[in-house]
Specification:
With about 425 residues, this protein is of the alpha+beta class. Helix content is about 35%, strand content about 20%. Helix 1 runs antiparallel to helix 5 and helix 1 crosses helix 11. The model has no long low-confidence stretch (mean pLDDT about 90). One of its GO terms (molecular function) is histidine-tRNA ligase activity.
Length: about 425
């Protein structure tokens, strides 16, 4: 019989991995709440049109990476490859535009069919925030500051650099697009077939090409910053000024772009050199045209997403598992009392390990394997006296504690 294995590009989150994931998610949720972001959850699959409209029919995600299928009712569905489109769809379908501005935090699994490698999986997990209904550069500053604060909370900020660039407004973008078409048109015969296809439809996507020949041409391409009008320059200056005021370091990256037309003004990434090729740990930007492109009302938006796996890999060590209290019955007559005590302590908020069988020696060995902090021994003498013997498993000391005072005594071990 063939040994069953996880699907390529997926993996099990065993307890230590799960503690790392929880550390990232819980830190992100707590910090996001401080900034006023409320947690939401969207379905893990949507009508395929949700992502085709937002990611573009010619994007690599849509053409090569989406897990799409037709259900029994004949509907075309897709496992979500990212979270922003689902949040935007929720705003439209839920009629939430009347409540703007809205601030959302989310986390959960995403799915993309791509070559698995370190920090890149086919089922991966993200945290993200979206700020909807705020057109001012203060929104960009707040979104970036939230991300930076989460990285700082995780102890990672000193190993990560914020890179940002301006994509300008629609006028600036059109001016840059015209210049790109002129430039790449002069190198058409040297471009890859994919980039030649993109030249008329979306020349900005050529800037993201992975083809080595394309990359050499891109290296000499005009810079977005040279085509920004004054309004766009002022917007970007307000963003960088806000980051300066908050003491958040950054570097301007003139080659940082987003290929889709609904992106504008600020684009940013938090990058690290500690994960090899997969150096981006958080990426985002302003997408004022997205919701309108999906059929909703014109609604400014800005946000970011971050891969939980990548952040978890950067944690110095996994958070420790919660240390339990071990309840150890000594003799058959203590079994019932031990069961009741364990249940009572769990209701009081303690993590308790009772065990299922074995003599005192075996149960104490198991308690040590589980890194229990304390063992409560219950034998014939303890039952008669209404007490337990409390053994500190770190110090090796023990004492007798009355049952009615036990919860107060255990507070030090919670």
């Amino acid at each position: 019989m063939t040994t069953l294995q996880p699907v390529r590009g997926t993996h099990d989150l065993l307890p230590e991995d799960m503690r790392r994931h929880r550390r990232v998610t819980e830190a992100a949720r707590e910090v996001a709440e401080r900034f006023g972001y409320l947690e939401i959850e969207t379905p893990i699959f949507e009508f395929s049109e949700v992502f085709k409209r937002t990611l573009g029919d010619t994007s690599d995600i849509v053409t090569k990476e989406m897990y799409s299928f037709t259900d029994r009712g004949g509907e075309g569905l897709t496992l979500r490859p990212e979270g922003t489109a689902s949040v935007a769809r929720a705003l439209i379908s839920g009629g939430l535009a009347q409540n703007l501005p809205l601030k959302f935090f989310y986390h959960g699994p995403m799915f993309r069919y791509e070559r698995p490698q370190k920090g890149r999986l086919r089922q991966f997990h993200q945290i993200g925030i979206e700020l909807l209904g705020v057109a001012a550069p203060a929104g960009d500053v707040e979104v970036i500051a939230t991300g930076h604060s989460i990285l700082a909370e995780l102890g990672l900020a000193d190993r990560i650099v914020l890179e940002l660039n301006s994509l300008g407004d629609a006028e600036s973008r059109q001016a840059y697009r015209t210049e790109l078409v002129r430039y790449f048109g002069g190198h058409r015969d040297k471009l890859s077939q994919e980039s030649r296809d993109r030249l008329e439809r979306n020349p900005l996507r050529i800037l993201d090409s992975k083809d080595e020949g394309d990359r050499r041409i891109v290296a000499e391409a005009p810079l977005f910053g040279d085509y920004l009008n004054q309004a766009s320059r002022d917007f970007f200056a307000a963003v960088t000024g806000g980051l300066d005021a908050l003491g958040i370091p950054y570097r301007v990256s003139p080659r940082l772009v987003r290929g889709l037309d609904y992106y504008c003004h600020t684009a940013f990434e938090f990058v690290t050199e500690t994960l090899g090729a997969q150096g981006t740990v958080m990426a985002g930007g302003r997408y004022d045209g997205l919701i309108e492109a999906m059929g909703g009302p014109p609604t400014p938006g800005v946000g970011w997403a971050s891969g939980i796996e990548r952040l978890a890999m950067m944690l110095a060590e996994a958070p420790p598992a919660r240390r339990p209290v071990a309840v150890v019955p000594v003799g058959d007559e203590a079994q019932g009392a031990a069961l009741r005590l364990a249940h009572d302590l769990r209701k009081a908020g303690f993590a308790v390990e009772l065990g299922y069988s074995g003599n005192m020696s075996k149960r104490l060995k198991r308690a040590n394997r589980l890194h229990a902090s304390v063992a409560l021994l219950m034998g014939e003498d303890e039952l008669k006296g209404g007490v337990v013997t409390l053994r500190d498993l770190d110090k090796g000391s023990q004492e007798t504690v009355a049952l009615d005072a036990l919860k107060d005594r255990l507070a030090a071990y919670r």
